[in-house]
Fold this sequence. Notes:
Blueprint: E1 2-5, H1 8-12, H2 17-26, E2 30-33, H3 42-54, H4 64-76, E3 80-84, H5 87-97, E4 105-108, H6 115-121, E5 126-129, E6 132-133, E7 138-139, E8 152-158, H7 167-177, E9 180-184, E10 192-193, E11 196-197, E12 204-208, E13 221-225, H8 228-238, H9 265-296, E14 302-304, E15 318-323, H10 333-342, H11 358-364, H12 367-384, H13 388-396, E16 397-401, H14 409-432
Parallel strand pairs: 4-5, 4-8, 8-9, 9-12
Antiparallel strand pairs: 1-2, 3-13, 6-7, 10-11, 12-13, 14-15, 15-16
Helix pairs in contact: 3-9, 4-9, 5-6, 5-8, 9-14, 10-14
Pyridoxal-5'-phosphate binds near residues 113 and 184.
Amino acid sequence: MRRIPLSRRMLLAGAGVAMAARRARAFNREIKIGRAWPEYDRTEEEALLGVLRSGKWGRIDGSRVAELERQYGALLGARHCVATANGTSALIAAMNAIDIGPGDEVLLPPYTFVASVNIILIQHALPVFVDSDRPTFQIDVRQLAARTTPQTKALIQVHLGGATAGLDASLKFCRERGIKLVEDACQAHLGEWRGKKVGTLGDCGTFSFQASKNLNSGEGGALVTNDEALFDRAWAFHGNGRARRITSATLSGWAMNGANLRLTEFQGALLLAQMTRLERQSQTRETNAAALTKYLKEIPGIHPQVIDEGCTRNAWHLYMLRYDPAAFAGLPRAGFLKALQAEGVSGSGGYTPLNREPFLRDVLQSRHYRKIYGDARLRRWHEENQCPQNDRLCEEAVWFTQDMLLGEPREMEYIAEAVRKIQKKAPELARQA
Ligand SMILES: Cc1ncc(COP(=O)(O)O)c(C=O)c1O
């Protein structure tokens, strides 16, 4: 949360001069962008104290995590939900539940958080990057076929920033070829595709409740699915392989291999409390994001993220735009971000190209990968690992975080006003850069 001065134009742009002047006095000629994150009050305090005093701190003894799974699954319209220690472990459970292992190839976008690729590498599977669609910031589903081989067993479609694109095409593509579709919805709580919650459309979906996320318990995650067999495997995997239901085949209780990926009762209780705020916060973000887009799209050289018509609800975890220095007298993006910061608006340049991370080269040259895939396949991987659109996207992106969208409508006007001001001063700023 940052305090910044109200400009004169900003004051006049409101619902009338007198009202704006009153507001300015009330704010002591200052405005804040966004809200302190996370929001909490007695509800969260009592929820946490309740767990503390119960003495039942783990899910094996308590009931909060099970209640969270019931409520979160119901909120999304998913038949099954298993809570996990974080979003990464929800994805690891997903990979094991759909049986991804050495020799398998997994498609994914290069414009995503590093966890999306790490969970493929943990399985010793081969990550295959599909270039980005710059306007939407999402995977370019038109390029799925070109990157698919007989070894392709899954697609991880990331709903980056809370939006999604081309999901009809990717669902059809995967269905026709027997490829599993895992929705990485770690940034997309309450996001929708054609009226259905994202995470519930593919074979399974994963969510993160890490501190920056729109639903937060510091750390935490969940996997949702409508497929009971997949759920049984994910459930077992998240609890060291213990079967959800004891059958004659699982007399010992161990149904499969697994790990301990369980969420604690404290996190379960905190999430139940935070969930009571989620819909209201989401609506505020939507209203503010719409206003911000209305203002910013009028500014030459600023291209707000295009939302696919099938994306009926964006979770707005990130507000993303593409910045064109040509419309700002050649001022590089770093200079633009610095100038924004000087106006009290914090933005970031977002991701760097994940497919070109040096650590990937190291992993793919390791003795395990050479043994599994052979030199010829790995050489071809390097030759084909080109995502030119994504390289451009990583250079032109500007992000604002979800907490900035929780502010008052006039704060969105202020952001646009700051961008206009920088554009006017751009020749001078570019000379100094
Ligand atoms: C797209 C994406 N996938 C996976 C993750 C991993 O989630 P976590 O940090 O909860 O492990 C994140 C978290 O930032 C994410 O943004």
